[in-house]
Amino acid sequence: MKIPFTIECVLFSLTGALIFSSCCTPALQFSIEESTDHIEIIDTHIHLYDTNRSQGVDWPPVTDKVLYRPVLTEHFDEVADREGIASTVIVEASSRVEDNQWMLDLVKDKPGRYLGLVGNLPIGTDEFTRLIERFSKDSRFVGLRMRDRPGGDAFFTDAVWRDLAILEEKGLTLDVLIHNFTIDEVTEVAKRLPDLKIMINHLGGLNITHDPSDENWKSAIERAASYANVYCKVSGIFQRAGIKPTPKEKSFYSPVFKVVLDAFGEDRIVYGSNWPVTDRGGSYSEQLRIIRGYFSSSVMRFEDSERGDHIAKKLFRENAIRFYGL
For the whole model, what pTM was predicted? Predict the structure, then answer.
């Protein structure tokens, strides 16, 4: 496409708004949607549950007026169809063992959209070996998440290290919610089990404000990223916002995005929404627009739009396939 040589040209900005340039030979700027809407996005972090089940749910609590409702495949299908999400990985938020099977059964008729389950099993217990043998027979059971921390400071027992080694041996993955665990603990696991693929959830758990990023957090992220088996999930951005109302400007999150991209590089960042928890801070489309806006073209110089498209493909699809073995 050629732009006429004029004294003042009307261009489209990355946000789709009209901008004016007095430059005689302006460079063409592609919209974010134009450069990335062809990517078949994999959302690697959603939760499904049914509050109407006879036994109820152990998360979210009934007091949560935003999340306490049935959240099932038909609800995510509606979001995915609207937002152009091709497929997803479910992260089990329930601590009940049999809810892993309930989830696998729930999505068995939609293998094209629901690719895998990051399960929740009691690591460091006598029944773990039997349970992991059972669930790992299903190829959709891609790994586990460490979310709860029974035992507190004494969590990392010999039994826990034994069970994490079993994950490594089986080629399963480990997601870590940085809430009950620290980034430095992730680093220790990565050091002791170098073949275990580890995913730090939700941008490393930083409480994002208008202040500069915490240097201790930044250093911890860089130490973890020095191990090739550690990845970082660009997810839950609204939940990481430490101010209300939740900001919707890309500039608010950009400093944290930059730390993560600089540390992990383009090959070890993975997209996830944390839906429906996103609803606490805004809409799915708002958080996707912010993430897409940074990691697609605007993080690159405008003259290097192909480079931005290359990183977007890795973030939104290719790295997820490689990490989870989809």
Answer: 0.86
